[in-house]
């Protein structure tokens, strides 16, 4: 067997070292051979050696610019390495050479989306649809793209097409439930959530939203629901809440301390700290600041701000139950909207409070007690909070009406509370 045939055999049977030695020997005698460079690039690629693979695929396209698979594989490698501009360039080259290859346009679409070039991403997916009209992943991606661009009607159309072909497509159904709900198509939203629950009895997102839409008040939103919502929201949370929805609750809570500004708190606990907006608002007011949250992604953003002495991925009650150290200030900005029954939290906060500790938090409104509202958040009546405060040993120092944030251009009304232990 000649060296080329022997090397190919090593390559096909997964003998990396022998195949590598073979290709290197062959290339020593024929260094401008694009086919040998391509095979060596493939060998590196298949063995996860992406830098070496990129080097040799680049050599191929230098020697043979019409080698579409080399451009395509370069696209895959650069995408994998997070170098989206070079990935897009490589896929563009491949697309010029193979204008009817759906895979190239699909990957180019994903890359354009990563680059925030949504219109270009959209054109790529449309091109894929002309080549493969019923491609489920393309229809799904188009749905997601339109959802991200807030083109809800188009997004619904794409997800409905996915579900028409595949009625059990859970992710498309989840998106449809959310979008129908947002667009006020309540019956369709209910039917979609019911379908999701029929497919999976543990469909917690659907379960929570179905309860919200059908007027059932549960004790709290499930942890998985909270994590899913906030993990997916973390990257855009600050921009979307503060810039677009006028959210200033942390600063409003801080303003409740006016007149006491000279007091520096020893230990502060930010419960449901999210991305750390309260950490920013309460800067300079506390010696030590501890944050906790259920969402790891929100905590990652908070961590980058460098404002917290420690951050804990846990739920409020577990954290309070498990420790002993007292806190002098407790914060919960826009967190109790995800918890209906606050009795355990009040008891536990009181347990971890030093005498005279301050408890600052916001709520949305409810006519009485607490209720789960159609958008999936809880409201609490002032009488309910006052009752809990009394039962658990807090004095209500201040209650202020506040605009929490906007929803569909309208302010959501709420209350801010300052309690003393
Ligand atoms: C609307 S965000 C508010 C975040 C932050 N306090 C602020 O003012 O920007 C609500 C946060 O509470 C967290 N959260 C909700 N329920 C929680 C619970 N039971 N335990 C811990 N964190 C919770 C969520 O993960 C989310 O990050």
Low-confidence stretches: none
Hetero groups in this structure are: S-adenosylmethionine
Q: How is the main sheet built? A: 7 strands, mixed
What CATH architecture label of the domain at 229-420 applies?
Answer: 3-Layer(aba) Sandwich
User: Terminal Cα separation, in Å?
Assistant: 87 Å
CATH class of the domain at 229-420, named: Alpha Beta
Q: What structural category do the secondary elements indicate?
A: alpha/beta
List the helices and strands and how they pair.
Layout (H helix, E strand, L loop, with lengths): L2 H10 L3 H14 L4 H13 L3 H14 L4 H13 L3 H14 L4 H13 L3 H14 L4 H13 L3 H14 L4 H13 L3 H14 L4 H10 L9 H11 L3 H8 L4 H7 L9 E7 L5 H5 L4 E8 L2 H10 L4 E4 L2 H7 L4 E6 L10 H9 L1 E12 L5 E3 L5 E3 L1 H11 L2 E13 L2 E11 L1
Parallel strand pairs: 1-2, 1-4, 2-3, 4-5
Antiparallel strand pairs: 5-9, 6-7, 8-9
Helix pairs in contact: 1-2, 2-3, 3-4, 4-5, 5-6, 5-7, 6-7, 7-8, 8-9, 9-10, 10-11, 11-12, 12-13, 19-20
State the gist of this model.
The chain has 421 residues and is of the alpha/beta class.
């Amino acid at each position: 067997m000649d060296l080329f045939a022997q090397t190919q055999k090593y390559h096909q049977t997964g003998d990396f070292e022998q195949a590598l030695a073979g290709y290197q020997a062959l290339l020593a005698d024929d260094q401008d051979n694009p086919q040998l460079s391509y095979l060596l690039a493939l060998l590196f690629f298949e063995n996860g050696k992406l830098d070496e693979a990129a080097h040799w695929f680049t050599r191929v396209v230098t020697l043979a610019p019409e080698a579409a698979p080399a451009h395509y594989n370069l696209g895959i490698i650069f995408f994998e390495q997070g170098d989206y501009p070079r990935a897009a360039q490589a896929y563009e080259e491949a697309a010029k050479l193979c204008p009817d290859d759906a895979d190239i346009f699909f990957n180019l679409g994903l890359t354009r989306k990563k680059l925030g070039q949504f219109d270009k991403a959209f054109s790529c997916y449309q091109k894929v649809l002309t080549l493969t009209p019923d491609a489920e992943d393309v229809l799904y991606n188009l749905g997601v793209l339109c959802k991200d661009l807030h083109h809800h009607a188009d997004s619904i159309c794409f997800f409905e097409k996915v579900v028409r072909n595949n009625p059990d497509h859970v992710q498309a159904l989840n998106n449809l439930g959310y979008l129908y709900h947002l667009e006020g198509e309540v019956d369709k939203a209910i039917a979609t959530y019911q379908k999701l629950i029929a497919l999976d009895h543990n469909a917690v997102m659907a379960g929570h939203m179905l309860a919200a839409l059908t007027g059932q008040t549960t004790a709290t939103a499930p942890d998985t629901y909270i994590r899913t919502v906030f993990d997916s929201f973390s990257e855009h949370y600050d921009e979307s809440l503060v810039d677009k929805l006028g959210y200033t609750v942390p600063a409003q809570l801080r303003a409740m301390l006016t007149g006491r500004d000279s007091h520096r708190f020893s230990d502060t606990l930010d419960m449901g700290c999210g991305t750390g907006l309260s950490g920013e608002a309460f800067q300079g007011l506390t010696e030590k600041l501890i944050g906790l949250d259920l969402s790891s992604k929100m905590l990652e953003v908070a961590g980058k701000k460098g404002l917290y002495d420690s951050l804990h991925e846990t739920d409020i009650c577990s954290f309070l139950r498990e420790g002993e150290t007292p806190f002098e200030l407790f914060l919960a900005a826009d967190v109790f909207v995800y918890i209906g029954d606050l009795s355990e939290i009040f008891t536990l906060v009181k347990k971890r409070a030093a005498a005279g500790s301050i408890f600052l938090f916001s709520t949305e409104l409810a006519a009485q007690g607490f209720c789960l509202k159609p958008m999936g958040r809880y409201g609490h009546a002032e009488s309910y909070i006052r009752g809990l405060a009394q039962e658990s040993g807090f004095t209500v120092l201040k209650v202020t009406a506040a605009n929490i944030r906007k929803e569909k251009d309208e302010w959501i009304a709420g209350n801010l509370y300052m309690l003393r232990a």
